[in-house]
């Protein structure tokens, strides 16, 4: 019988802090049949893998609920739905908090303003209770319900977290009031009210971190209009099958990944690729779920199910990215494991020792101990890194950069060297005609018409580039007969009955042409003054020694075109450098990258030309894939961090070897998404400086959060025995204040944006 192992994602919205996750994990640890789980407090989800033959989903839900957290929704693998939450500030917890605060305020009014009316109303164990004390106790009863409830679940799950510590502090204040005869009801009410406010603030802050991911999940529409034999039908996207044709009208979101089968339009792909300019789409072009049809009517044949489309994969990878802990997160977890026990022990020591060492009253010593218990939970310290990572990763995804883990974000911020593949990375990866030099009285159209006829039946990429250029120039076609490929040299065919040739200079050298002496119709931009002086006629070219080497030095491939009697022209073809490449390299250096390098399998002359054009510090040419890996390994030994930027397919070994592997143009490409640590979803190299800046700033924010939260906690703890830190300050500054502070600091990362103005200008050049 099949083992029946399955993975289910559960939405647990109130699990919004590491201590909450700890209780859930302890509950799942006691459940037989659960093989693994991932708790993600920053998104409020738990992914559990379990054996259905020994445990059911209801058992898993019950286990989580036994830790004190409601499961609001269940989702299948690969999707997430946090459910709709009520406003935090009008929730039942919030209403109880405001009522508790009202009774606390009334108690203070009777304690200090209406002292004459603060009469004794009874006694408990010999201690008098006044009106203010009753009001404080009501405040504790109302505001402390959730705290004591959560504290109970913490004790039940053997979790020494903030809920347990605050419960002990509140109950300790009440017990001490009876034991010492000196009322600490005010302190108990203050703890109940202020900690409830702190919890609301923490939940609100965490929701801010969740919002950006929720926005990603909300991009894809829930319904699609499917074309049927008898018309159109609107159905949920989950019911759309691969092969169905969906209809998308102007202004609508594209519901599924697919290929355009009818219509043309401009599509806003910013949600997926981060491109600021809409992309023209026509029959045969690929489109992605969540992108917006700007103006035209489109019919799209679906190529991926809803759970497998590009947007769904991005959302899933962003969620999973939180599970890859950074080195700083691992340090924080190790540190927090002994921080709480040490501070609790310090609280006990202060409570028992301060009356003898500092001469304080026992009641005061108890207050000191309770204050230290408030500071014993490292909540702000623990969330300082994950909330920053989530903010950085989701902000990057919103701008078309997919970072597959916090560890990769951290590593990118420490990169000293960036290496680039050439083809498809620094260049467009598509051959285009760059120069046409007509000779012996022919025009450019004459040369292209001849070249088109010769290359029309060729399957070589150079031939395809020439045919495409001739087509865009709208030159006339010629009648072709007796086509023949001359291996390693070029092609031959009869055009309108006359034999013609196209190929390398060596082909025409073999045909007996004097390549050192031909005449250009115009200077073509490559005629030099020296060659003019060598001939009685102007526009004399030396193809062998001057023109061809000059074009080749620019990284271009040269094709000669002519008949048996005359060379009609020169066509240069090249893989064009991306217009944003030079600016990208310069910007990376401005941001602090020490060294840039290009690694390519192309010949050294072409590589040198491209390297000089884009401005990389160094290039290495004629490299096989394993030699690229060796080059990366050398750099990794020399520098702390090395990034490799490639297409995610041919460069997979080098991407895997580098400290950070970055894939270009990964939208819709499974291989690129799986291979790289980071994927630039759009084919836009200009996003690289943005990524580097974001990663650097993220590392800075993480350091600020860790150091800041640790120093505040330590400073408050040291000051407690000397009476400088009242219990309300410990709650507001040490817990609520730092939680809000580190979250707000982390959210600053969402303000970093690519330099869209520069990128747009470069694309228009």
From TrEMBL:
Gene Ontology MF terms: ATP binding; ATP hydrolysis activity; ATPase-coupled monoatomic cation transmembrane transporter activity; metal ion binding
InterPro entries per the UniProt record, alphabetical: ATPase_P-typ_cyto_dom_N (IPR023299), ATPase_P-typ_P_site (IPR018303), ATPase_P-typ_TM_dom_sf (IPR023298), ATPase_P-typ_transduc_dom_A_sf (IPR008250), ATPase_P-type_domA (IPR059000), Cation_Transport_ATPase_IB (IPR051014), HAD-like_sf (IPR036412), HAD_sf (IPR023214)
Keyword flag Transmembrane: yes
Keywords tagged on the record: ATP-binding, Membrane, Metal-binding, Nucleotide-binding, Translocase, Transmembrane, Transmembrane helix
UniProt KW Nucleotide-binding keyword: yes
Signal sequence residues: none
GO CC, alphabetical: membrane
Location of the HMA domain: 6-72
Domain of life: Archaea
Membrane topology reported for the UniProt record: Multi-pass membrane protein
Coiled coil location: none
Record localization: Membrane
Ranges annotated as spanning the membrane: 98-117, 129-148, 160-178, 338-359, 365-383
Main location: membrane
Pfam families: E1-E2_ATPase, HMA, Hydrolase
Family, as annotated: Belongs to the cation transport ATPase (P-type) (TC 3.A.3) family. Type IB subfamily.
Protein name from the UniProt record: Zinc-transporting ATPase
Species of origin: Halococcus salifodinae DSM 8989
